[in-house]
Structures are given as structure tokens and as C-alpha cells.
Amino acid sequence: MPVVDYAGQSIEVNEEGFLMDSSQWTPEVAEAIAKEIGINELTDQHWKVITFCREDAAKQGTPPGLRRISKNSGVNMKDLYQLFPKGPGKLAAMVSGLPKPQGCI
Amino acid sequence: MTTTTIDEAVTSGQPTVAETETERKPIERVSIICSKGTLDMAYPGLVMANGARMMGIEAMVFFTFWGLDIITEKKIDSLHVATVGNPSMPMPTMVGGLPGMEAMASKMMKKQMDDLEIPPVREFIEILSDSGAELYACRMAMDMFKLEEKDLVPQVDEVLTVMDFYDKSAGAQIIFI
Q1: ipTM value
Q2: Which residues of A touch B117 (CB under 8 A)?
Q3: B113-172, pLDDT tens digit by residue?
Q4: Hey, are the CB atoms on A86 and B47 less than 8 Å from each other?
């Protein structure tokens, strides 16, 4: 598996760029992943999504799907697509240092 | 089987493994045709369009013939599973034809979907619209079923002729359901 340098840390990611170990995640790592996927700056709205994703994944044991995020994070579906224009389904989890969501919704 | 090195393959004009893989370009746009109006045939198109948007692929959905039921205000909340003429239905056709069977099967399917957090059709259409997917109705089918734009849910962007459909589908992979 590739090892990348995010915020001065050596971090192992899979071929798609998802962190192999979500405990290596820090807010600085999130900023670095965001740059990698074309988001120059993480806004408060982004952080709302990231915080929800990490808390929900810790509780559920699995990263939340997009519908779940839009219903519970306080950021609606339209805004999620604005925040992650290249595809919020994958990228919200990636920036949050979580594995790729397994749900189809 | 003979093996060739990359250099040999390049000089002989044969594609190398690396080349074949780079030729597999990611999908950038999908154009999905929904032509069926039963509950079980409505979902595949919606799930695929939504899945595309979730990973940043442009998506358009073209509703035609019975697929128009999916976006018709009066029908969207009451789509049914077909219990007759559906070979995958685990009951004899004669039983499937009994009064109330279709309603029961539809209710069961909706319950199962709800348990899996799959949204009802109306909400799914809203999600698609919010995600930036384009939703189109078929002109000819609208005329056949005597439907007007006001009969459709507000998320529908436009009514298209088949020629418009191909214009909008430029650069897309077309999927027929």
C-alpha cells in the first residue's frame, strides 16, 4: 500500500487514497487530503460534515452514507454537493479519514 | 503463450497491459432511460443515477413510457411491485392475481427498503435533483398518456423529444432500464 506524507506524517493509504488506519487522522491530515482532492480550504460547513462523519462512524462502526449525512449533519444534500463537487459520497469519508462507505445510497 | 517485454510490444505496436489500463477512462457522464413504472423497476435507474452523482459523475435520467409514472404527481407515491407476469416473484401467478396481493407485496418491499434506509421514490427524486442530476420526461410518452407538465413532479427539468435526448446525452454512457 502507498505511504504518503500528510502534514509531516507518514500515512498509509489504499489505492483509492482512503486512510488505512483512521486513528492516524488529525485535522491537519484532513486539510492535506482536501488539497489532494482539489478543495483548497476546509470551511466550517466542511468541518460540520467531517465531525458528523467521524462521530457517526465511531458509534456505528461503519462510515455513514450520503443520505445519512444529509439527514443528520445539519448540511443538506444540495450543500454537500457544493462542498465536495467531485463526489461527496466518497470524498466526505476520505477527508474524514474513514474507509469508503459500503452503502449504495 | 509467448511473452513480450514492454519494449518489444511498443515496437511491434501491440498494446501493453499498462496501455490497455490507461485506455479504460473513468466514466464522466451517464444517461439513464427509465421505461418501466413498477416499484422494482423504478429503483435501479434511480440508484444508478444517484450512485453516479455520489462519485462525481454527471447523470441524467430520461423517463419514458411507463417510466413516466415515477415522476407523475398522482402516481409517484403508489408505485407497485408486479405480482403477475413477474417470473422472479416467489408465488404462483394465480396467487399473485388475487385481490390485495400486489398491494401486500408492495407494502412488504417498501418496508424492507425502509429498513435498509433506501428512500421512498419521491424523496429519491428530490435527492437526485439536489445532487444536480438532470431529470427529463419523454415528449412522445407524455402525449400518449395525455400528460402535461403540470402533472409531473416539480423536480423535472424539461420535456424532451428523442432528438433532444441524444443532444443532452452527448459524451454519456446510455443505460436502458
Answers
A1: 0.89
A2: 65, 67-68, 103, 105
A3: 888 888 999 999 999 999 999 999 999 999 999 999 999 999 999 999 999 999 999 999
A4: no
A71 touches chain B (CB under 8 A): no
The answer to whether B118 and B51 have CB atoms below 8 angstroms apart is no
Alpha-carbon gap, residue B135 to B128, rounded angstroms = 8
| CATH of the structural domain B26-81+119-176, one choice from 3.40.190.10, 3.30.420.10, 3.40.630.30, 3.40.1260.10 | 3.40.1260.10
Residue B49's nearest CA partner among B72, B67, B30 is B30
Q: Residue B1 above 50 pLDDT? A: no
**Which positions in chain B touch A89 (Cβ < 8 Å)?**
51, 53-55
pTM of the model: 0.84
> Domain spanning A3-95: which superfamily?
DsrC protein, C-terminal domain (1.10.10.370)
Sort out which chain B residues have CB atoms less than 8 A from A67's CB and list them: 117, 119, 127
**Contacts of B28 by beta carbon, 8 Å cutoff, 6+ apart:** B57, B58, B171, B172
| B25-59 per-position pLDDT tens digit | 899 999 999 999 999 899 999 999 999 999 999 99
Catalogue the active-site residues of A.
104
Tell me if chain B has a CB within 8 Å of the CB of A90: yes
